[in-house]
Amino acid sequence: MKSSHHDHNIPSTPGKFKPEKSNLYHRFRLHYSHPTKPTFWGFVFLCLIFIIFLNSSPSDQPLKTQSWGGSEWEKRVKSSSKIRSKSGFSVLVTGAAGFVGTHVSAALHHRGDGVLGLDNFNDYYDITLKRARQDLLQKSGIYILEGDINDAVLVKKLFEVVHFTHVMHLAAQAGVRYAMKNPKSYVHSNIDGFVNLLEICKSAEPQPAIVWASSSSVYGLNTKVPFSETDRTDQPASLYAATKKSGEEIAHAYNHIYGLSLTGLRFFTVYGPWGRPDMAYFLFTKNILKGKAIRVYESGDHGTVSRDFTYIDDIVKGCLGALDTAEKSTGSSGKKKGDAQFRVFNLGNTSPVSVSDLVSILEKLLKVKAKRRVMKLPRNGDVQFTHANISLAQRAFGYKPTTDLQTGLKKFVRWYEGYYGLRKKSHH
């Protein structure tokens, strides 16, 4: 497998944390050996009640947390979070096995920050890709704990073990169209999970500064181009966008009431190596190589559908810039001591490209003609175009994207062919 450019100069990693195997089965057999009938059936009944309780939650989304705790576990958490540079931070990265989370974690670690990852490894897309990213990070000494941001006991424990200076909150249920199939998962992750994290951060000592991922989707039905952070965002076009917009409003409330320093980042169509398999460029690449037809959408009036495609390295620079300029939170013991920083930035490429042109670039790079099926853009929450105004981020931390789509896709295709073993062997 070909590695990304972030994983050079990496030391060996400690072995994976292995939760202790339960001996419940053996204990059950001991109880079963000589039971009185009431005791046995009472035990079975209690087990059933316990199982039902574990599997019930308001959103039908059971928490996914592996065994944790103990001195060895704490040692590993502290080791991963240890700052290794003079002016470094200790950062909790949620969604660390995700596309952006993996790249941001690697970049933070590479420059000497302490990094602890948290990810629930949900099956929205191929888990083997998430595990491969996890392995990549753990080889460099970054521990990714398997757990859910809704697990308040776990998250509180992490803040007791490590005094994080910053949180990079990238965990979220992604995707616009999937919200029509599983709406509760978006509320569970993007709203409930965010509130749970904020609740714990407000009471942490010291309170961390928080940078979190919003989305360009919050602009919804806005027809102004390019999108500016001062534009109205109260007409979301999808449930996903609505949950992300809700996150911005919730963040503002916690900033105002508890003095938490909060910076929101609106990402614009991020792509690149180790990317998300549900994204158009990834699906196009897969289907073009397999000779399958691809859907190229156009608007109702035959207008082009365009996206402000932003290469992952540019997004990482923006994330680190936001983290570096985030001011300290002002609260203590859950009480606000003074006004705290609250910011929202666009992170885009400022160069929208039509989906049709995206396909043309991929055809040249893959040396395969695509079987295009032009279709009308469905009413599923997708918008016709996105275009970021990035002047605020430029002024605040010098954000300046440098990778055009042609260059970025070339790097993606090279990674894709290496990861999936498609690179042609040279003949001698």
UniProtKB/TrEMBL annotation:
Biological source species: Tagetes erecta (African marigold)
Enzyme Commission designation: 5.1.3.6
Protein name in the entry: UDP-glucuronate 4-epimerase
Subunit record text: Homodimer.
GO molecular function per UniProt: UDP-glucuronate 4-epimerase activity
GO cellular component: Golgi cisterna membrane
A Pfam family per the record: Epimerase
Keyword terms: Isomerase, Membrane, NAD, Transmembrane, Transmembrane helix
Catalytic activity, reaction form: UDP-alpha-D-glucuronate = UDP-alpha-D-galacturonate
Entries under SUPFAM superfamilies matching the protein: NAD(P)-binding Rossmann-fold domains (SSF51735)
InterPro entries noted in UniProt: Epimerase_deHydtase, NAD(P)-bd_dom_sf
Membrane-protein topology: Multi-pass membrane protein
Residues passing through the membrane, by range: 39-57
Family stated for the protein in its record: Belongs to the NAD(P)-dependent epimerase/dehydratase family.
Gene3D superfamilies xrefs: NAD(P)-binding Rossmann-like Domain (3.40.50.720), UDP-galactose 4-epimerase, domain 1 (3.90.25.10)
Primary subcellular site in the record, as a coarse category: Golgi
Name of the top EC class for this enzyme: isomerase
Subcellular localization(s) per the UniProt record: Golgi apparatus, Golgi stack membrane
NAD-dependent epimerase/dehydratase domain: residues covered: 91-328
Secretion signal, residue range per the UniProt entry: none
